[in-house]
Amino acid sequence: MKITLIGYGKMGHEVESMALANKFEISSIIDRKGKNATHKELSKEAVEDADVIIDFSSPDNIIETITKVASYKKALVVGTTGWYDNIKIAREIIKANNSGMIYSPNFSIGMNIFFSIARSASFIIDKFPMYDPYIYEIHHNQKTDSPGGTAKNLGNILLSNIKRKKKLVFDRIDGRKIEPDEIHVGSIRAGFFPGTHVLGFDGISDNIELRHIARNRAGFAEGALLAAKWINDKKGFYSFEEVISSIIKG
Ligand SMILES: NC(=O)c1ccc[n+]([C@@H]2O[C@H](COP(=O)([O-])OP(=O)(O)OC[C@H]3O[C@@H](n4cnc5c(N)ncnc54)[C@H](OP(=O)(O)O)[C@@H]3O)[C@@H](O)[C@H]2O)c1
């Protein structure tokens, strides 16, 4: 299978190494700085040999990228984050062109399996009010958002299944107790952790914890390539979580 990479930064390089180690071909690399890339700009000619295009660039002109790639009738995997206010527009562009696209803020296969496990676990815990859910995440000291989007997503999964819980609390809880309908989501920033997420259910006699530990960026590249294979012969607009769910269902 032939891939075009848009964006040749940290993730572009990671996808390239993983692709070459797994018998994908890189037919072109587009990066606006152009260093070691085959093209500086996206064009029909730049992607004509590719089966699927994988974008890890920047959100600046991602809608333009989606519009162009869809008009070239090429399948697209978007790892770039920070454009989700325009998700409806992206869906419409893909539908109007009858093309295919997968997006995700987190292409780690393990994390998307973890989302699915969290969904099942929260459905069970809904039936057992003696267990109180909580979440915490640990990231390196360079990360500027807190909590990260992945922890928020885990929180929303819990809220959607545990009926007695109505609200996520991210702040420090000073001078008051946490309310019975709240779930506390904590963040730790230290050292070099690429990303650890813990989902816990605490009872009076015991504690259940589920933990996902990212080791490096390779997991994102692995997921983006799985997405590329999956979308190659399909049309439509999908999140990577939907792709993982469809693989789980068989
Ligand atoms: N979904 C996931 O699993 C996942 C995982 C990790 C990262 N990400 C996201 O992926 C994106 C890239 O991350 P990164 O760490 O690889 O960033 P990076 O190291 O800064 O690399 C991005 C590269 O893309 C280039 N670029 C930006 N816009 C472009 C465009 N329109 N056309 C061609 N090239 C363009 C940049 O050039 P300039 O330097 O000139 O801008 C840069 O060389 C970010 O949005 C990040 O949040 C997603």
Overview in brief:
By secondary structure, the chain is of the alpha/beta class. It has eight helices and eleven strands.
Explain this structure.
The protein has helices at residues 10-21, 44-47, 62-71, 87-97, 109-125, 149-161, 218-231, 240-249, and strands at residues 2-6, 25-30, 52-55, 75-78, 100-103, 132-139, 167-169, 182-189, 196-202, 207-213, 236-239. It has 250 residues and is of the alpha/beta class. α1 packs across α7 and α5 packs across α8 (240-249). It has 8 helices and 11 strands. The protein is elongated and about 65 Å long. The longest helix is centred in the middle third of the chain and has 17 residues, at 109-125. The protein starts with a strand and ends with a helix. It has 2 domains: 2-107 and 217-249, 3-Layer(aba) Sandwich (Rossmann fold), CATH 3.40.50.720; 109-213, Dihydrodipicolinate Reductase, domain 2 (2-Layer Sandwich). The strands form 2 sheets. The chain has a 6-stranded parallel β-sheet, with helices on both faces. The protein has a 5-stranded mixed β-sheet with strand order 7-8-6-9-10. Helices cover 36% and strands 24% of the residues. Residues 6-12, 30-33, 56-58, 60-61, 79-82, 104-107, 220 line the site of NADP nicotinamide-adenine-dinucleotide phosphate.
